[in-house]
Amino acid sequence: MSTQLRNDDESDPQEAAAAEEVLKLEAEVQQMAEKLLEYRATLPDQLHSTLSSLLASQRPFHWPVYPLKSPDPKPGRLPGRMPKLELPKVYSLLVGLLLLNLHVLLKAFLAFVGLERTVEVEKIQLLKQKMSDNALTLPVVLKRMEVYMGKIEELASSDGVIHPAFKRKRVV
């Protein structure tokens, strides 16, 4: 009987410690749930205000407006036609603005959240590296695109004979 009493005495402090541990964990879970609800309530408003202030601080981009009929057409241009836009330059400008906006938004979001975990920081650094690599290869791609657009326009304007293998077969 004495061994049974000792086992009961030993289990009571262990059970009390386990119960105390469970109560601590439940309190921590409750605090985390409250913080999560608070973040869910405030984060969308803060992100919205950050985005709206960021967009409001930027100058708007206005597309050039060309009249359909010019009063005195230039000798090499037909009236009512738009001048040839340099698309690769426009694309590079737009992509540059997009990358800049993404970078600024990413910085603002990281500053707001305050990430300190190394795994997430490494992923973000990898994402930044990929974005900068893509931005560095963009001029090469745009140059290629410009060359091939010129070749396509050259082929479209030529009256050369197209080999029958490259003609579309009409389905009747």
In short:
The chain crosses the membrane at residues 90-115. With 172 residues, the protein is mainly alpha-helical. It has helices at 2-57, 87-113, 118-157.
What is the count of β-strands? Answer: 0
Unreliable spans: 77-82
Kindly name the structural category. Answer: mainly alpha
Our estimate of the beta-strand percent is under 5%
> Can you tell me the overall shape?
elongated
As a percent range, the share of helical residues equals over 70%
- The number of helical runs is 3
Distance between the termini: 101 Å
Count of structural domains: 2
Mean pLDDT: 72
Give the helices and strands as they follow along the chain: HHH
Main beta sheet: none
Calculate Rg over CA atoms.
Answer: 33 Å
Question: Keyphrases for this structure?
Answer:
single chain; 172 residues; mainly alpha; 72% helix; 0% strand; elongated
What's the topology here?
Elements: H1 2-57, H2 87-113, H3 118-157
Helix pairs in contact: 2-3
Can you walk me through this structure?
- Residues 15-42 form a coiled coil.
- The chain crosses the membrane at residues 90-115.
- Keywords: Coiled coil, Membrane, Transmembrane, Transmembrane helix.
- The chain is mainly alpha-helical and 172 residues long.
- The protein folds into 2 domains: 1-59; 85-157.
- It is 72% helix and 0% strand.
- The protein contains 3 helices and no strands.
- It has helices at residues 2-57, 87-113, 118-157.
- α2 (87-113) runs antiparallel to α3.
- The chain is elongated.
- The chain starts with a helix and ends in a 15-residue tail after the last helix.
- Mean pLDDT is 72; it is low at 77-82.
